[in-house]
Design a protein that fits this description.
heterodimer; A: mainly alpha; 4 helices; about 75% helix; B: mainly alpha; 2 domains; elongated
Chain lengths: ~120, ~150
């Protein structure tokens, strides 16, 4: 029980928790440039998904592109975690992933319902 | 080469992998011809992309909280993406979405026809392209598409 409480305390450490200062690494600026590049590519991917959401001939295409946008947001939040070296952003990533999954399941139930009206 | 350098090399590698798969999934969603094919691209985006980025976070930050949450995110992505894709594809099929006209086989339609008793065991089963009927699935004949479907 004490071990569980200790693990909970360690998991709950927030942004204010004092982290050990990172050692110097010559690749750190390259990593940060790659993170900015990744943010740009993720936003471009979201725009491509928005194009499919507007164009999509079937409702399943739109739901699928919305699901992919939610996963891109998860990736973007993880990139923010790496950039800020903080702990609390991954909670947001997990919440966005769960909400996207639940909404995909709900839309799948809606699409597969035989009493639904004709194709919008 | 210190341990911070090694961690940064691993982090850069996994971040590049994740960014690549994220963008490739989005391009596939635009470029693929069919909702079922687009589901394939979206699964790449949500499993491999998120996995790469989360591994980059693990190797760069390295705290226990980040490691645990990133592993939970990876586990959730590995569970949620196939389930969501499967349910969406099945719902689209139930809704009557026509597959791509160059698709090789549509086994859910075949199973439905088989259960409805429309075809006997040796009769040619319904395909996505009804112009080319092929033999039964466990009997690969001279038709190459039947052999592909029997292997798959």
């Amino acid at each position: 029980m004490n071990l569980l409480g200790g693990m909970m305390m360690m998991l709950a450490e927030g942004a204010g928790a004092a982290r050990a200062p990172q050692e110097f690494s010559p690749l750190r600026p390259l990593l940060f440039q790659i993170l900015e590049f990744g943010a740009i590519m993720s936003i471009l991917g979201m725009m491509l998904c928005l194009y499919r959401m507007v164009r999509g001939p079937h409702l399943a295409d739109r739901v699928l592109s919305g699901d992919t946008i939610s996963w891109q947001v998860v990736g973007l939040v993880i990139l923010l975690t790496v950039r800020m070296e903080s702990t609390i952003y991954l909670d947001a990533a997990l919440v966005v992933a769960i909400i996207g999954f639940a909404s995909t399941l709900a839309f799948a139930q809606y699409i597969g319902n035989p009493r639904r009206q004709a194709n919008p | 080469m210190t341990s911070a350098t090694v961690n940064d090399i691993l982090s850069i590698f996994f971040a590049l992998c994740g960014i690549f798969f994220m963008f490739v999934g989005a391009v596939g969603i635009v470029r693929f011809p069919d909702a079922y094919n687009r589901l394939h691209a979206a699964s790449k985006c949500s499993t491999l992309g998120v996995m790469g980025l989360a591994l980059a976070a693990i190797f760069h930050v390295g705290a226990l909280a980040v490691t645990t949450k990133a592993l939970m995110t990876i586990l959730f992505a590995l569970v949620a993406a196939p389930v969501g894709s499967h349910m969406l594809a099945k719902a689209a099929h139930l809704d009557g979405l026509k597959p791509w006209d160059r698709q090789l086989s549509d086994e859910l339609t075949q199973d439905k026809e088989r259960q409805a008793g429309k075809s006997s065991a040796n009769a040619p089963r319904g395909m996505a392209a009804p112009s080319q009927p092929r033999p039964a699935r466990r009997d690969p004949g001279s038709d190459p598409t039947a052999r592909i479907s029997a292997v798959v």
